[in-house]
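Budget justification note: compute hours in this period were largely spent on complex prediction jobs such as the one shown. Inputs:
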Amino acid sequence: MSSSISLEDITKAQARIHGYAYRTPAYRAFSEESVWLKMECFQPVRSFKIRGAANKILSLTDDQMKRGVITASSGNHGLAVAYVAHKLKMNATIVLPENAILEKKQMIESLGARTVLFGRQQDERMKKADEIQNSEGLIFIQPFNDIEIITGQATCGLELIEDVPELQSVFVPIGGGGLISGIATAIKLKSNQVRVIGVQPEGSPSMYKSLKIGTLSGIEESHTIADGLSVRKPGDITFSFVKRYVDDIVLVSDEEIIGATTQLLKKEHVLAEPSGAAALAGLLKVRRETGKKERSAAIVSGANISKEMLSKIAQ
Amino acid sequence: MSSSISLEDITKAQARIHGYAYRTPAYRAFSEESVWLKMECFQPVRSFKIRGAANKILSLTDDQMKRGVITASSGNHGLAVAYVAHKLKMNATIVLPENAILEKKQMIESLGARTVLFGRQQDERMKKADEIQNSEGLIFIQPFNDIEIITGQATCGLELIEDVPELQSVFVPIGGGGLISGIATAIKLKSNQVRVIGVQPEGSPSMYKSLKIGTLSGIEESHTIADGLSVRKPGDITFSFVKRYVDDIVLVSDEEIIGATTQLLKKEHVLAEPSGAAALAGLLKVRRETGKKERSAAIVSGANISKEMLSKIAQ
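Corresponding output:
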């Protein structure tokens, strides 16, 4: 397994996931001059996670496919794995947090997957999934720390740079780092002129901290409204991609994340979950602080919002 | 000008509007077995209106394009005209109702178009736009009663029948009838097996009434939460298409429309305005009444919802 990704790897992934993931549009925002929004929230599972999951599962051998897949997820990766498995008529098991959003659980089950509720943090769920995998002989589909997953997410970056002319910077949310690893690779392989900026919640700055000190490191606790970005320790593979390709990481408060989610809903008429609007929150923060209105894009990475959060955002 | 549309006319329109309108996905609903949703709410202007507007404006002569365009609209058609004009660097004037949704007005103005507020009903706005057109020499872009507009909307039907295998019925919202005229033409030219069902609000049943009595006729008053479907008199051209190609029209209450809008938001994680969810309301009503779960699609036609309505739906 190589720890680098070529442009050819990404275009191959693009062909592989065709018919599973969707080529989402990038639209100019109505509410912000020279801001572009990459609509991953328009995917069939309402998040970018379908790209990596499809690329990974479609790369399995026939024997592996027969055994079935398992994963641990706060929801969107699990939904993506369930969706791809459903299309391929494979068995899938998804380990969700005890406090999983009910709608996400129902969406996963509507695709015929088995759900298991366990723990509250990503690392706890990973251990549980590992146990089930060993006892049942299933194939584990990593949520982010996997080269095929990262290559799948990279297709998003390739589309973005093809579709938005004269792009100057891209803002990407970071949980475990799979999406930004893929996007940064695609972008930098195409152009060194475009800066790639990661965005993490202030209450969950694991990749930010790791990048600043130059060593992969975790955080004790993670508290953020953006549940999809709550990861206490990034992966070693994603960390190596971030070190190599990402220009900077900015932190945003829960208040800023809610502000961006509201702006997307009320001014752009696009539904995003807080994790899905975090990149826009980072973009808007950098604009406010620098006063510069360069041509930037934000990945709107997902729309699987809880009813409670929705009612708060829509007030 | 022909009053019929061929498959070749539709594929030509498809090529013409490429790069303006988007080929939207059709997804299986998570919440309803064998229901497919055609996501016109994912268009750059968040409604299907971009298809007709792009086809019409791109069919103008160079001289007509130089003069600039004008239209009357409750919002979505105006936004679409403004968007296409902006892309083509043309002048555009949009006559909106006095009680226009502020967000729609702002979106239109963010595209550099002039807005004029006048009256509350579509026919009043049409007269006002006609006056301005005459005094300023602009080109009037009809919202629905125009063969090029209908041909543009037909591209939506062509995509749907290509993308959803073994489709049995399609539910389409009706205001002036442009969308259903186009979709029904495309569907019936491809397959006589697929039924096309129109959906109108109980409080604005102008096409329903016209179809039942067999003669184009208007209604005195229109009262519905689905502002985009509030048209007191259908067009003569759209009426002739509906008579020829549409199998039936069902009426839905405001309560049923709100229910479908809520279901899209909370269970499918897709934002739609009430007019945009009316077709799903009709589909669900027919399912309840017949008990049949055939493979059906509903056009989710737009997402430009007001803040007030959003907060009501999201509660």
